[in-house]
Amino acid sequence: xxxxxxxxxxxxxxxxxxxxxxxxxxxxxxxxxxxxxxxxxxxxxxxxxxxxxxxxxxxxxxxxxxxxxxxxxxxxxxxxxxxxxxxxxxxxxxxxxxxxxxxxxxxxxxxxxxxxxxxxxx
Amino acid sequence: xxxxxxxxxxxxxxxxxxxxxxxxxxxxxxxxxxxxxxxxxxxxxxxxxxxxxxxxxxxxxxxxxxxxxxxxxxxxxxxxxxxxxxxxxxxxxxxxxxxxxxxxxxxxxxxxxxx
Lengths: 122, 115
Known about the structure:
Oligomer: heterodimer
Strand content of chain B: over 45%
Radius of gyration of chain B: 14 Å
Number of strands of chain A: 11
Radius of gyration of chain A: 14 Å
Low-confidence stretches of chain A: 101-106
Distance between the termini of chain A: 36 Å
Mean pLDDT of chain A: 88
Largest interface: A-B, 29 and 26 residues
Order of helices and strands of chain A: EEEEEEEEEEE
Number of strands of chain B: 12
Low-confidence stretches of chain B: none
Order of helices and strands of chain B: EEEEEEEEEEEE
Structural class of chain B: mainly beta
Shape of chain B: globular
């Protein structure tokens, strides 16, 4: 299957600092990338949808100014957690897809997930 | 309202036995896809199986099969011949085809396989 990488795999930072997480599709061009957050023992919650060259679409309740998403190329999207606080500590996971902007029925393409980034804010 | 519901927070199964993980979904769309993912303790999301809303036959992938009952809006995952390595969190997810490809996940089921 297609390969998606994330960097860093884990990060510890002080409260008030900003942290940037990279998501790269290594062997395909991803028109769309998704960012999820997962707290321990909970499900993945979609934060935002990132389309190359355009502004990200955030889910309800997700602060745009706190979670800055940039999708500058077809292989790279970044999530910056600005002024991180302990409550932002979580597992952040991205996924990438070659999904067309117009949904096509019966496509079996899945989202290809990165390995995730564990963020701990002290 | 929950779009994807997994009612079993945890399940136990004996090694080599079969197990069914439940998933029900809620959508008014005609075109959608249903997915199952496995998440071991390392955190990676492993794609297991996919079922399209228009597929008439239940999807199968090796030891995984999806029991798709469209009228009941259920998409249960059946794992046959459980192995110790199957112990993990399992998530059911839905993609509504007019929503730009995003996935909505259920709460997950933690499966433990006993030797």
